[in-house]
């Protein structure tokens, strides 16, 4: 018998289904099943500059020394971001939360990597490397930070139903209060191998596949991937992965209370002269209300609210990867968001990607260029 959960994606992408030879949306017997993303790790040259932007974006400092910075949201849990001072700025990798210490031991037996104590963060961790060369840390038994005062969603008079009366709406133009880390997006030239690794090693499942225009027969070029929590709800994507010439960070996303928090927080950032990358709008895959900014090291970060939540019964949807298909409404997608602005490092990465033995060949490059023009 078909249930509403079984048809949830059929209603969205009924004309686009999996073809023979396409990757599965999940592994049959993964080593473990992670339950969430824990934090992201960066190296940056200027800790004071990084903290200044972080406060304007809506983070709270957990701790700071001359060489390290830890940032958090308002919800109880782990810090959202860990930053170490270095001679250059770069994304190090994500940390994912396992259900318990036994999961780390299973990963250790599978990979030969050792489990070690995390020190001030509590619990323990194991350090892995995905097929594209990115560092991936898996943690368990963390000492969660207590919650902080939250930014409460506004009360609306919608659909003829009056919830607010004898009261005005005056949300201040101030930093949006980040609640939590939602997801990270990465690019990889070894898309299928990388996807299989996250499915088989960490038990992640695909919510949506996208394919390049005119290249459906070559399979997906992007996947939105969530945690498998069984009957419990999980974010539409905790990790998103796109095929490209380089292994690199694309953006990360942080939840705020509602659309007014997104908009007022963005106005605050604009007042302070930060670079706006794209928004405000509402995505199609994941449905989030979004607004994208660049920090002072040019890393792209997103405020989001009202994202989709799925349990494990929802199978992967399929859709073409187009620029116009990235949002239900909002301004046209920018070249900055698509990574299409002229940049010497980007050109170097494209040339290197085409030379190397990986999935990104000249045909995939043409497909990617079609995305930018679609």
From TrEMBL:
Species of origin reads Williamsia maris
The entry's protein name is Glyoxalase/Bleomycin resistance protein/Dioxygenase superfamily protein
Q: Where is this region: Disordered?
A: 1-25
Q: Which domain of life is it from?
A: Bacteria
Describe the location of the VOC domain by residue ranges. 180-306
- Here the segments flagged for biased composition (Basic and acidic residues) are 8-25
């Amino acid at each position: 018998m078909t249930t509403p959960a079984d048809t949830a994606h059929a209603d969205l992408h009924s004309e686009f289904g999996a073809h023979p030879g396409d990757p599965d949306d999940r592994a049959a017997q993964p080593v473990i099943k992670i339950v969430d993303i824990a934090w992201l790790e960066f190296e940056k040259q200027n800790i004071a500059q990084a903290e200044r932007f972080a406060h304007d974006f809506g983070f709270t400092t957990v701790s700071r020394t001359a060489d390290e910075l830890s940032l958090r949201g308002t919800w109880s849990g782990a810090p959202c971001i860990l930053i170490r001072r270095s001679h250059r700025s770069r994304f190090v990798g994500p940390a994912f939360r396992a259900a318990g210490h036994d999961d780390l031991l299973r990963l250790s037996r599978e990979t030969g990597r050792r489990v070690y104590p995390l020190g001030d963060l509590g619990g323990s961790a194991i350090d892995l490397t995905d097929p594209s060369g990115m560092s991936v840390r898996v943690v368990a038994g963390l000492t969660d930070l207590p919650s902080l005062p939250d930014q409460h969603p506004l009360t609306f008079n919608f659909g003829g139903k009056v919830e607010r009366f004898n009261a005005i709406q005056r949300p201040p133009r101030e930093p949006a209060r980040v609640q939590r880390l939602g997801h990270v997006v990465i690019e990889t030239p070894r898309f299928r191998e990388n996807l299989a690794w996250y499915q088989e090693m960490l038990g992640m499942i695909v919510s949506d596949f996208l394919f390049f225009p005119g290249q459906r027969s070559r399979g997906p070029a992007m996947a939105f991937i969530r945690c498998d929590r069984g009957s419990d709800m999980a974010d539409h994507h905790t990790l998103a992965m796109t095929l490209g010439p380089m292994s690199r960070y694309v953006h990360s996303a942080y939840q705020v209370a509602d659309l007014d928090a997104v908009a007022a927080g963005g106005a605050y950032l604009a007042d302070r002269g930060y670079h706006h990358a794209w928004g405000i709008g509402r995505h199609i895959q994941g449905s989030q209300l979004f607004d994208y900014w660049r920090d002072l090291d040019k890393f792209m970060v997103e405020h989001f609210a009202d994202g989709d939540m799925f349990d494990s019964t929802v199978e992967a949807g399929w859709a073409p990867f187009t620029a116009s298909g990235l949002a239900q409404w909002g301004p046209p997608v920018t070249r900055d968001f698509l990574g299409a602005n002229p940049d010497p490092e980007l050109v170097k990465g494209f040339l290197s990607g085409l030379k190397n033995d990986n999935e990104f060949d000249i045909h995939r490059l043409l497909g990617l260029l079609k995305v930018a023009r679609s």
